């Protein structure tokens, strides 16, 4: 028999959009439970949680293998892998992956596509000791934001960085009660001033190597004091033409 002649009719069920759950995770769980319940005695050894995982390397070359689903929730689908394996390395280099579940007893296959992340569940997902969290605490009780009848709308349209009270990054407090944590602000400001002074000393002094072509920055020495001055008429640069408003 030719390979092309191997086929059968699929008549168990169709797929109608009106029958699908609006939540794709809920729909997958329903189909998974149906596949699990439909396993016959002969097919008891069939792994209903087995899926084909397709990945691509940095050059876009695809590869696929079978993995076992270990969990599913609103965050996505969980499978275990060796991070040093080919699939682990490919996911680290290109997070775009696809899963395909095939349940022949149900005459159904399910395809999932998205981005994968190594070790993500070890770091995030719940506010649990030992896990990382990025949290921004906003001060909402203000003249422009209170009372909050529409929380998302107020946050998006009315709030700005001045409303940030506390910030945690990767579980570490970096901003508390509107003050940076772990930073010597005065020392940082002094370093900024020193950097400014070094820049001014360079541009106000003689050029160290050659000169800039005429027409750049000024009509004479580009390192003269008015390099950072006003470029408009009646400013320090008196060679600039008078500014005229356009009609």
Quick take:
This protein is α+β, with helices and mostly antiparallel strands and about 250 residues long.
Description:
With 247 residues, this protein is an alpha+beta fold. Among the domains are: 3-116, Electron Transport, Fmn-binding Protein, Chain A (Pnp Oxidase, Chain A, Roll), CATH 2.30.110.10; 135-180, Roll (Urease, subunit C, domain 1), CATH 2.30.40.10. Helices cover 21% and strands 23% of the residues. The protein contains five helices and nine strands. The chain has helices at residues 24-37, 86-93, 120-123, 151-157, 185-204, and strands at 50-56, 62-73, 76-79, 96-103, 108-115, 135-138, 164-169, 172-176, 179-180. It has a five-stranded antiparallel β-sheet with strand order 3-2-1-4-5. A four-stranded antiparallel β-sheet has the order 6-7-8-9, with no helix packed on it. The protein is elongated and about 90 Å long. The chain starts with 23 loop residues before the first helix and ends in a 43-residue tail after the last helix.
């Amino acid at each position: 028999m030719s390979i092309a002649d191997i086929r059968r009719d699929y008549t168990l069920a169709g797929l109608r959009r009106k029958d699908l759950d609006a939540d794709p995770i809920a729909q997958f769980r329903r189909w998974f439970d149906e596949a699990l319940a439909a396993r016959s005695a002969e097919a008891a050894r069939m792994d209903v949680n087995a899926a084909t995982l397709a990945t691509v390397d940095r050059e876009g070359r695809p590869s696929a293998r079978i993995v076992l689903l270990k969990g599913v929730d609103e965050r996505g689908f969980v499978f275990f892998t060796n991070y040093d394996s080919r699939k682990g390395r490919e996911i680290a280099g290109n997070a775009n992956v696809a899963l395909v579940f095939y349940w022949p007893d149900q005459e159904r296959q399910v395809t999932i596509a998205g981005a994968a992340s190594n070790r993500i569940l070890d770091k995030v997902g719940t506010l649990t000791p030992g896990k990382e969290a990025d949290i921004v605490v906003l001060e909402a009780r203000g003249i422009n934001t209170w009372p909050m009848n529409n929380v998302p709308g107020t946050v998006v349209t009315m709030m700005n960085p001045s409303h940030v009270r506390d910030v945690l990054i990767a579980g570490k407090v970096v901003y508390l009660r509107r003050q940076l944590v772990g930073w010597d602000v005065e020392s940082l400001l002094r370093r900024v001033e020193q950097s400014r002074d070094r820049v001014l000393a360079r541009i106000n002094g003689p050029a160290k190597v050659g000169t800039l072509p005429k027409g750049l920055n000024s009509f004479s020495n580009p390192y003269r004091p008015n390099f950072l001055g006003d470029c408009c008429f009646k400013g320090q640069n008196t060679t600039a033409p008078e500014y005229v408003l356009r009609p």
